[in-house]
Specification:
The chain is α/β, with parallel strands linked by helices and 412 residues long. It folds into 2 domains: 8-170, Response regulator (Rossmann fold); 200-411, pyruvate-formate lyase- activating enzyme (Alpha-Beta Horseshoe). It has 15 helices and 17 strands. The protein has a 7-stranded mixed sheet with strand order 2-1-3-6-7-8-9, sandwiched between helices. A 6-stranded parallel sheet has the order 10-13-14-15-16-17. The protein has a two-stranded antiparallel ribbon with strand order 4-5. The protein binds cobalamin (B12) and iron/sulfur cluster.
Length: 412
C-alpha cells in the first residue's frame, strides 16, 4: 500500500534507440509530467531517458536505489530496435529487463506503462511483461491522476488495464479532453534537459481522421481530432526558445490537416518572428501554394511524406486518400522551395503488392529522386498483432524482393 501524501514518481523513457538512429525527445512523458505537476504540485517528479545513458541499466539501478520512488511511469515507444548490424537487422527491445530491475530494487513501487508500443496491443504487452501493474491508454493524464488519488484501489477508473489474478481486465473506455487542455505551464523537470536532444517534439493535435488500412493510429490516438489552441503551442515553442533550443519536430500524424489550423499556427510563428527551424509529417493531398509559402517563411527545413506506393490500386486498397497524381502534384509545388528537404516514404509488401505494383513504385521513387531531388526511403510492412492492420502480402517472392529493396535502400 502506498502512503497517501507526497509521492515520488519516476518517469522512465525506455530504450528504443539504436546507434544510427536519432534520440527522440520524450515528449509524451514531458506532457504527462506537466499534467501530474498541475494535479499534484507537491509530488516529486523525475524523468530518466535511458536512451541518453551510456550504461542505461546501471543508471536505472542507481536512480532507483538513491530515491524511494513509489510510482514509476514507463513509456514504451517502439517494439523493435535495430541491432548491432543495425542497417540490416532488428531485434525486440529488452523491455522485460527494465521492469525486472524496477521490481527488484523497489518491490512495492507501482509500475505503470503507456506509450505507442503498449497502446497498439495492451493485453499482449501485459501478458508478456508480468511485472507491470497497470497500463493506460488514450488520454491518460486524467486517469493517471484518478488512479493515484484512489491510492490504486479504484478499479473503475477508465482507460486502465490491470491484473486480477491471472486475468488482464480493461476498465472500459472514456473519452476525455483534459489532457490537451493541460499542456500548459511549461517548466523544467529534474532529469530532462532539452539541450540533450537535436530537436524537440511538439504535438499540436491528437487523432487522425484518415483511416489507412495498414495504420494502427486508431489504437493510439483515435479518429477524432483534438486540437490544442494555437496560443499554447506558441507558448511551448517560446519556452524552449528561452532555453536556447530552436529545432522542433511537430509530432502530429498529419501536421497539415486541418489545413486552416496548420496555416493559423504557421502564420503566428511568422507574426511573432520566432525564428525556429522545424520538420513534420505532411499529407501530399493537402499541400498547396499558400501553405508552401507559409512552410518556408515559418522555418520548415524538412517535410516527411508517406507516399506508400506508386500504384493507385494499392493506394486505394490501403485507403491512404492519396493518388500518384496527388503525390506528384505536391512534388511540383514543393520543387519551388529547394531550401526544404522533402523525404518520401514507401511501404513495400502490403497485401496487394505484386511485380507490377513494385515496378510502378520504383518508377515513382526514381522520378521523385531524379526530377524533384527528393529523398526516398523504402521499408517493408511489419504486421502487428491486430488483425485490422495485418495486411501483409503472402507471396514469398514479392516479400523477399520487397525486403531486398528495403535493405539495399538502407545500405546506400
Ligand atoms: C513523430 C513520430 C516520429 C518522428 C519523431 C520526431 C521527434 N523528434 O519527435 C520520427 C519521424 C523521427 C519517427 C521515427 C521513428 N518512428 Co515514429 N512516430 C511518430 C508518431 C507519428 C508520433 C509520436 C509522438 O511523438 N507523439 C506525440 C506524443 C505526445 O505522444 P506519445 O509519445 O505517444 O505519448 C502519449 C501517450 O502515448 C502517453 N504515454 C506515453 N508514454 C507514457 C507512459 C505512461 C506510463 C503513460 C501512462 C502514458 C504514456 O501519453 C502521451 C500523451 O498523450 C508516432 C505515431 C503516433 N501517432 O503515436 C510514430 C511511431 C511512434 N513511430 C514508430 C516507428 C516504428 C518509428 C521508427 C522505428 C521508424 C523507422 N523504421 O525508422 C523510427 C524510430 C526512431 C528512433 N530513433 O528509434 C511506430 C512505433 C510502433 C511500434 N509499436 O513499434 C509509431 C507508433 C508509428 C506507427 N504507426 O507504427 N517517429
Ligand atoms: S494519415 Fe497517417 S496516421 Fe492517419 S491513418 Fe493514414 S497512415 Fe495513419
Amino acid at each position: 500500500m502506498i502512503p497517501v501524501g507526497q509521492y515520488k514518481i519516476l518517469l522512465i523513457n525506455s530504450l528504443y534507440k539504436s546507434k544510427n538512429k536519432e534520440t527522440i525527445y520524450p515528449v509524451g512523458l514531458y506532457y504527462l509530467s506537466l499534467f501530474l505537476k498541475k494535479h499534484f504540485p507537491d509530488h516529486y517528479l523525475q524523468i530518466f531517458d535511458m536512451n541518453l545513458s551510456k550504461n542505461p541499466y546501471q543508471d536505472l539501478e542507481r536512480i532507483l536505489s538513491k530515491y524511494n520512488f513509489q510510482i514509476t511511469a514507463i513509456s514504451y515507444r517502439n517494439l523493435i530496435r535495430h541491432s548491432f548490424l543495425s542497417k540490416l537487422a532488428t531485434k525486440t527491445i529488452d523491455f522485460e529487463k527494465v521492469t525486472r530491475i524496477c521490481k527488484q530494487i523497489r518491490p512495492d513501487m507501482k509500475i505503470i506503462i503507456g506509450g505507442p508500443a503498449f497502446a497498439i496491443d495492451p493485453e499482449k504487452v501485459l501478458k508478456r511483461f508480468g511485472n507491470i501493474d497497470y497500463g493506460l491508454v488514450d488520454n491518460v493524464g486524467g486517469m493517471f491522476a484518478e488512479l493515484i488519488e484512489s491510492n490504486f484501489n479504484d478499479h473503475s477508473v477508465k482507460n486502465v488495464y490491470y491484473r486480477n489474478k491471472d486475468q488482464i481486465i480493461f476498465s472500459g473506455y472514456r473519452s476525455d479532453d483534459s489532457f490537451e487542455n493541460a499542456i500548459t505551464g511549461f517548466t523544467v523537470f529534474p532529469g530532462l534537459n532539452a539541450g540533450d536532444y537535436d530537436e524537440i517534439g511538439i504535438q499540436t493535435k491528437k487523432g487522425c481522421i484518415f483511416q489507412c488500412k495498414h495504420c494502427p493510429q486508431k489504437y493510439l490516438e483515435g479518429n477524432k481530432i483534438r486540437l490544442r489552441s494555437v496560443k499554447t503551442v506558441i507558448d511551448e515553442i517560446s519556452f524552449y526558445l528561452e532555453m536556447g533550443v530552436r529545432n522542433f519536430y511537430f509530432t502530429d500524424s498529419v501536421f497539415n490537416y486541418p489545413n486552416h489550423y496548420c496555416m493559423d499556427l504557421l502564420q503566428e510563428i511568422i507574426n511573432k518572428s520566432l525564428n525556429i527551424s522545424w520538420s513534420a509529417f505532411l499529407k501530399a493531398s493537402y499541400i498547396d501554394d499558400d501553405l508552401a509559402v507559409l512552410l518556408l517563411k515559418s522555418g520548415c527545413r524538412k517535410i516527411d511524406i508517406s507516399a506508400e506506393s506508386g500504384d493507385d490500386n494499392i493506394l486505394r486498397y490501403l485507403n491512404t486518400n492519396e493518388t500518384v497524381d496527388s503525390i506528384i502534384n505536391a512534388a511540383e509545388i514543393l520543387k519551388n522551395y529547394p531550401a526544404i528537404r522533402i523525404c518520401y516514404y514507401f511501404l513495400l509488401g502490403t497485401e496487394k503488392e505484386n511485380f507490377s505494383s513494385l515496378i510502378k513504385t520504383m518508377k515513382l521513387a526514381l522520378r521523385l529522386r531524379m526530377k524533384y531531388k527528393s529523398e526516398i526511403y523504402f521499408s517493408t510492412f511489419n504486421p502487428i498483432n491486430k488483425t485490422e492492420v495485418n495486411v501483409k502480402c503472402h507471396n514469398f517472392i514479392i516479400n523477399t524482393l520487397s525486403a531486398c529493396i528495403s535493405v539495399f535502400n538502407q545500405l546506400i
